[in-house]
Design a protein that fits this description.
Elements (H helix, E strand, L loop, with lengths): L2 E9 L2 E8 L7 E9 L2 H8 L13 E9 L1 H7 L6 E5 L8 H4 L29 E4 L6 E2 L6 H4 L2 H13 L8 E5 L3 H12 L3 E7 L4 H10 L4 E4 L5 H8 L5 E6 L6 H9 E9 L12 H6 L3 E4 L5 H12 L9 E5 L4 H10 L5 E4 L2
Parallel strand pairs: 8-9, 8-11, 9-10, 11-12, 12-13, 14-15
Antiparallel strand pairs: 1-2, 3-4, 3-6, 3-15, 4-5, 5-7
Helix pairs in contact: 5-6, 5-11, 8-9
The structure holds zinc ion.
Zinc ion binds next to helix 3.
Length: 355
């Protein structure tokens, strides 16, 4: 039996590259991993702030090619050996209203990249040369000709479409503000403009966000605001003649002020999408304002099937702007450096592991 390599998270901040037996026939679907994208959740996992059941191969934004598949899995998915696919990490229960409607599962039965190596056949995460796909995974095909770096953006771009277009039912010609210029905020800018909307403004907070706000401008944001220098609410009310915008998407994590900002710059009858997790309740959440101004407040989590399909369509269209997002790639031996770049590099947006 030949061996394959994978980066195992052995404890907070501690990665060890280990050899595993290559999974054989009868293992369901086996994927040769081309790339695994990283997001803030990977940082939380590596730091130990997400509970795991022992040593784990992380990685849940996976791109690869099917090298072996058993008949049951093939019949259930329509996939064949040689298919190139993107693999959303979330598993599906198959029974909830989301699953039955070919949408995201509402039951959260588990996620690739969070299952322990002690659970056979161990290779459940994307920081690996090879992984085994759960029969509760629903991969989507992607064209073989797409460069790896662009294809690996499927998850963050999918979030852009799910959060900025699908959740607020965004119409062409509508106006949008995106709070936070991280990888998902920038994806929201791309998705909203692709859907024919105007991105009136994007906010950031100095430091690393200076570069990201430049990228937001290149993606079509009409105004960028460093909130340390200027009020995003004043800017948006100023450029909309006091009306506000149709949709505000808050992607900022751990900050509660942007929720108040969002509610203060959305037009009457407009929609605020809450995407960034705060880790705490929002003090003074103005329910009367929401009622009196007839606002819709929409929570979002992960990526819808529709979002994935639109992201793949954008990637396959050959849009070269996407290359502004792909800033760093690292091998399996350099997972800590990859996470460090994602957390600290001034120009880091999308970081991927390419085993
Ligand atoms: Zn389900």
């Amino acid at each position: 039996m030949s061996k394959v390599r994978a980066a195992v998270l052995d404890g907070p901040g501690r990665f060890v590259v280990r050899d595993f037996e290559r999974p054989g026939a009868g293992s369901g679907a086996v994927l040769e991993v081309e790339a695994c994208g990283l997001c803030g959740t990977d940082l939380d996992v590596a730091r130990g702030s997400v509970p795991l059941r022992g040593p784990t191969i992380p990685g849940h934004e996976i791109l690869g090619t099917i090298s072996s598949i058993d008949d049951t899995y093939a019949a259930g998915t329509g996939l064949r050996v040689g298919d190139r696919v993107v693999v959303p990490g979330e598993l599906h229960c198959g029974a909830c209203i989301g699953c039955l409607g070919d949408e995201s599962c509402l039951a959260s039965p588990g996620t690739h990249g969070f299952l322990p190596v002690e659970l056979a056949p161990s290779l459940w995460g994307g920081y690996a040369e090879v992984m085994v796909l759960s029969d509760r995974t629903r991969p989507l095909a992607i064209d073989r000709s797409v460069p790896i770096a662009r294809a690996a953006l499927f998850n963050l771009l999918g979030a852009g479409y799910s959060w900025a277009v699908e959740a607020p039912v965004l119409e062409p010609g509508q106006t949008v503000v995106v709070l936070g210029p991280g990888q998902r905020g920038l994806a929201c800018v791309l998705a909203a403009t692709d859907a024919g909307a105007r991105v009136v403004a994007v906010s950031g907070a100095g430091g690393r966000d200076v570069h990201r706000l430049d990228v937001a401008s290149a993606f079509g944001a009409e105004h960028t605001v460093d909130v340390g220098e200027r009020s995003i609410v004043e800017c948006v009310l100023d450029v909309t003649g006091g009306l506000g915008v149709d949709v505000v998407v808050d992607t900022t994590p751990h900050a509660t002020a942007p929720v108040h900002d969002a509610l203060a710059m959305v037009r009457p009858g407009g929609t605020v999408v809450l995407a960034g997790l705060k880790g705490t309740p929002v003090d003074g959440f103005p329910t009367d304002t929401i009622a009196l101004r007839r606002l819709t407040v929409r929570g979002v989590r992960a990526v819808s099937r529709h979002g994935f399909r639109r992201a793949i369509a954008l990637i396959e269209s050959g849009d070269e702007r996407l290359d502004r997002l792909t800033t760093h790639r690292f091998g399996l031996d350099d997972v800590p450096a990859a996470l460090d770049a994602l957390a600290h590099d001034a120009d880091a947006i999308a970081v991927a592991i390419t085993p």
